[in-house]
Specification:
The protein is 32% helix and 22% strand. It is an alpha+beta fold and 851 residues long. The longest helix has 30 residues. The protein starts with a helix and ends with a strand.
Length: 851
């Protein structure tokens, strides 16, 4: 017909050929790095990525000629691209160093910046559990500075620290003598302090019972790696896990205290342990197992098997051991003068014990004092840690350069001089004070090895450079903007609750200015208001419940937004708002949502950007739009609230519209329940069920299927906010939760593959050997899910369950499986928070899952 009528069709869309250069044969170039004596034949297995077709090519190397410099450059460019794929999913120090030697250095720095920004937000759990407050208080970030070889001419004593007043704890105590803790009277004021009131009860946490704490730490840091800190510090003290179990179970130890000069436990610090002996006769034989001689003659030194000394002494019923003689002597000095000048005798600690006392249910008590925080943010610690981090970077660079040289076939026995001569280390790299041994472990004369860094106390800072002093001054100016009035000590207590649960309570006094909590305090009641947080307990239990006690300012803001809507759309008298408040609760029911908030798991159920002000309501709004929910609003006059809703159902007030939205409110049955219908342009209908019951106005977004009822109403111990998680209530969403947990496991698996890949590739060793080598070289090793296995296949890392960096996968959900994620170890979790004066108190209660 087109031809008949002389017409033509011009296509608007020009179809592109998928393979515009389609032909039967393509030319590929292969490059291989071989040692000089390898002149045999190699077999190259090839796979077509599109069709899956396979073939094998035999290559006789005897008939080939060495390539020129351009081929070597192309070969390295290919390698660098492969390294970048693995580095993108890990934090491998080896790959970071290898990539930095190539043209992709700028891209590496950009990725580091983007990754850092991604970790700046926190979740509702992080805010309410106190994690955000602790992070803000300790200010553990490094001082950034490049010394450029400057001489150290500035005395550390002349560098001013943070000038912030201490809280007037003496005045706050008044006539009250405060609390007391005998072992705290042997702790210097500026030391981190941990008290174990029931040493034997800590064994489950020291062994396998710390899964919850480990999961929380991994969730907040994003790191799925193992440092084996317990094993490391026991070894540093000359002990092992079997011995410490015998020691704690012996019945001869009444209580213990641990102290440290800083909190850099991963990088390395000194620890001192003081134990009060109830039955010395049961303990002394155990010391002989460690090679500790008779202690009646005073302090003794015992080698720990790794060339390091451990110091032991007995004073009365006190057994003391430490990694630093200087630290232990400070403790002995406090014992000698009756504890004067100690943490335990201070007004600060005695006051904080009135706010968070040690009880009969307490297992452990940890404390960061005002002087300790000053020490952490002081010039000696900050600049000392900066120098150690710089040394760690140099050690990583040396070992990484040696591994790359090994990958390139360089002869064994590399030295730093040969690495510099062959371009693996910059010509300007300062090698003085550093050594590379035959196992590729780098050593620093001052700081030791990456797997055994010396403490900051053992490398004191006496003189600093002008650049270091200037950088620290900038840090102080930034820090002081937040701590305008007082420093804030931190107390943490771990208790048994009597119902097979554990409860961690954190008390921080005061909170810093301009923190995330400052905005929250403007909208949530404080403890001084005396208003309790009445929380409804629902049947059936929701999977998540968020409760908040909003103050008058918050309710005024809510009222202003709702008042006009109530009049225009459903003709409910805005006076109904006068009786609502102060508590507001969101219950999220079991469902598998199309859109998952936050991380998709239970703890991330309210998103990762939990903010202040009106942002507090965003999780509620988003939850209502994505899954079945019930909102409960407390009403001071339930009968009056129900009357307002009845009056709104009059015929003259129903089926009214405004713009493109029409609405109506109608009563369901004869009880105090209603349905509010919103019709948006005839395309979208939203129905909300309303019910007044047990002192609450209940709003359900799926009124015909949400059959939850208030079983009881309880007063929360803390009155600002509460978050409850009920993993066992999740049935319909198990597949979705499994997917979220598997995604985290896949991230961990990919991270581990990125860490181990360069070690396997460069050394020709097994994956298991690579894990041990990574621990030996760097002091940590990747975490691997127990049911997974890493493989070395076709010159690449691969996970049986989660695939590879180029082809990711994860296991399918099996109906009925609950052995994953949070549910693997936790039966129930509850977090509460409360503002007190200028401080914050939080409680985290969890019940472990029983087999």
């Amino acid at each position: 017909r087109l031809a008949k009528y002389g017409q033509a069709v011009r296509p608007v869309y020009q179809r592109k050929e998928l393979f515009p250069d389609a032909r039967d044969e393509f030319i590929y170039t292969f490059a291989v790095a071989v040692s000089d004596d390898n002149t045999g034949s190699v077999s190259l297995p090839l796979t077509n990525a599109y069709t899956g077709a396979r073939m094998s090519v035999e290559w006789d190397l005897a008939n080939t000629q060495p390539g020129d410099a351009s081929l070597a450059e192309a070969f390295r460019k290919y390698q660098s691209g492969e390294w970048d794929d693995y580095w993108a999913c890990s934090k491998s120090p080896v790959l970071a160093a290898w990539i930095a030697m190539t043209s992709q250095k700028d891209d590496l720095q950009g990725r580091r910046g983007r990754r850092g920004r991604q970790n700046e937000s926190t979740s509702a759990f992080g805010v309410m559990g106190g994690y955000a407050a602790v992070r803000e208080t300790l200010q553990m970030q490094l001082v950034a500075v490049a010394t450029n070889g400057q001489e150290r001419t500035v005395p550390i004593a002349s560098v001013e620290g943070v000038k912030v007043e201490s809280h007037p704890f003496g005045k706050m105590l008044g006539e009250n003598t405060g609390g007391g803790l005998a072992l705290a009277e042997m702790v210097p004021m500026d030391r981190f302090f941990v008290y174990l009131s029931k040493p034997e009860a800590m064994l489950p946490l020291l062994n396998e019972g710390a899964d919850f704490i480990s999961q929380m730490g991994s969730a907040h840091t994003g790191n799925s790696i193992k440092y084996y800190l317990k094993k490391r510090y026991l070894k540093r003290l000359g002990m092992d896990e079997k011995w410490i179990e015998l020691f704690l179970r012996s019945g001869g130890v009444a209580e213990c205290a641990l102290m440290a000069p800083d909190m850099f436990f991963i990088d390395g610090t000194d620890i001192t342990v003081v134990s009060r002996l109830a039955k010395p006769a049961l303990v002394m034989p155990l010391l002989k197992m460690l090679g500790v001689p008779e202690l009646s003659q005073g302090m003794v030194e015992v080698e720990n098997g790794a060339g390091q000394m451990v110091y032991w002494i007995v004073k009365g019923d006190l057994l003391m051991a430490g990694t630093s003689k200087v630290e232990l002597e400070q403790v002995l000095g406090l014992v000698a003068n009756g504890g004067e000048g100690s943490l335990g005798k201070s007004d600060e600690f005695r006051y904080m014990l009135t706010q968070l006392p040690v009880s009969g249910q307490t297992r452990a008590y940890a404390y960061c004092s005002d002087p300790f925080i000053r020490r952490l943010v002081g010039p000696e610690t900050k600049i000392g840690q900066l120098r150690r981090i710089d040394a760690m970077g140099r050690l990583q660079q040396i070992t990484s350069a040696a591994l790359l040289a090994r990958l390139d076939g360089m002869a064994e026995g590399q030295t730093m001089e040969s690495l510099k001569a062959n371009g693996y280390l910059p010509a300007s790299f300062a090698t003085e004070g550093y050594l590379l041994d035959k196992d590729l472990v780098a050593h620093s004369d001052l700081y030791g090895t990456l797997a055994g860094m010396r403490s900051l106390s053992s490398v004191p800072v006496d003189m600093v450079t002008e650049a270091e002093a200037k950088a620290y001054k900038g840090y102080v100016e930034n820090y002081s903007r937040f701590w305008r009035q007082f420093f804030d000590p931190i107390a943490l207590r771990l208790d048994d609750t009597g119902d097979d649960s554990l409860e961690a309570t954190i008390f921080i006094l005061p909170l810093i200015d301009s923190s995330i909590y400052t905005g929250i305090k403007e909208f949530i009641v404080a403890e001084e208001s005396g208003i309790p947080l009445r929380t409804p307990r629902m049947n059936p239990e929701p999977v998540l419940q968020l409760s908040m006690n909003l103050n008058d300012k918050a309710w005024t803001g809510v009222g202003e937004g709702l008042s006009e809507m109530l009049q225009r759309h459903v003709f409910i008298d805005p006076a109904i708002l006068d009786d609502l408040g102060s508590s507001l609760h969101l219950m999220v029911h079991d469902a598998d949502p199309v859109i998952a908030l936050g991380s998709g798991d239970l703890l991330g159920g309210f998103g990762g950007g939990f903010g202040a002000g009106e942002e507090l309501l965003y999780p509620m709004i988003l939850s209502v739009l994505t899954r079945p929910c019930t909102i409960a609003i407390e009403t001071s006059n339930p009968a009056k609230t129900a009357t307002y809703l009845r009056n709104a159902t009059d015929s003259h007030a129903s089926a009214r519209g405004w713009a493109e939205i029409s609405s109506e409110l109608y009563q369901v049955g004869a009880g105090d329940s209603w349905v509010c219908l919103f019709d948006v342009m005839g395309m979208v209908k939203m129905r909300f069920g309303l019910e007044v019951k047990d002192g609450f106005l209940l709003i359900r977004n799926i009124p015909w299927s949400n059959k939850d009822q208030i079983q009881s109403v309880e007063a929360s111990a803390l009155n600002a906010a509460m978050l409850k998680v009920f993993p066992s209530a999740g049935k319909l969403q198990l597949a979705g939760l499994h997917s979220a947990a598997s995604e985290k496991n896949r991230t961990a698996a990919l991270q581990g593959m990125g860490l181990l890949f360069p070690l396997v590739q460069s050394g020709g060793i097994s994956v298991a050997e690579a894990g041990d080598l990574h621990m030996k070289l760097f002091g940590y090793t990747p975490y691997q899910p127990s049911n997974d296995r890493w493989l070395w296949k076709d010159m690449a890392m691969e996970s049986e369950l989660y695939g590879s960096v180029h082809k990711k996968k994860q296991p399918a959900y099996i109906d009925g499986d609950t052995d994953f994620g949070l549910m693997e170890s936790i039966e129930a979790l509850e977090v509460q928070m409360q503002f007190e004066d200028t401080g914050l108190r939080t409680r985290i209660k969890w019940k472990t899952r029983k087999e």
